[in-house]
Amino acid sequence: MKSANQGFSLIELLIASSVGLIAIGVVGSVFLSGYQAANKRSLELLLEQDVNDAFRLIKEDVLRAGYVSSGSSSLKLSGASNVVYVSSAINCLAYVYDAPDGRKYNEVMYNSNKSKLVYRSSDDVKTIDTVCNLTNANSLIYEKQITVNQFDIVNTPISSASATSQLIKITLAAHLKNDDSVSTAKSIQIKTRNWQ
Known about the structure:
Blueprint: H1 10-64, E1 85-87, E2 92-99, E3 102-111, E4 116-122, E5 138-139, E6 146-159, E7 164-176, E8 179-191
Antiparallel strand pairs: 1-2, 2-3, 3-4, 4-5, 6-7, 7-8
């Protein structure tokens, strides 16, 4: 008569171990692919947010361009024909407005050599001859992680019987430095205000 309390045989143990390892492998690969997808999505969101923040700052600033607290005609950089001085050749915007803490001269420009978008604000009087150089400018996009591929400005004058304004179209393309597959390209149009 055989005993009813026998253990697992070696073959049964090997089969159970193999099934367990396969299950762990499947669960692990699903977890890793989910983690990689979530990580890529968070990097895409970081890039989108940085580009949107840059556009928001540029748009808000350009809409202030030309404002003068005395209520007289729009402020312009000395030598400029429009409220926003646009140099399409070097992808630069420059403008002036009165702020609560004094007159501000601002510039947004693209440094093609370093592939970054820079911004500079100053209280010092600027003219079209002294703007659009890269000294003492700060990056507008998080340059440690993001590279700007393209920054183009197209300026279209708009005239009516009473005033002249301009429509500025800005195109910005960027990607992550360590992952070219995470990229974005956006454009905005801004109609400048006429403070007359």
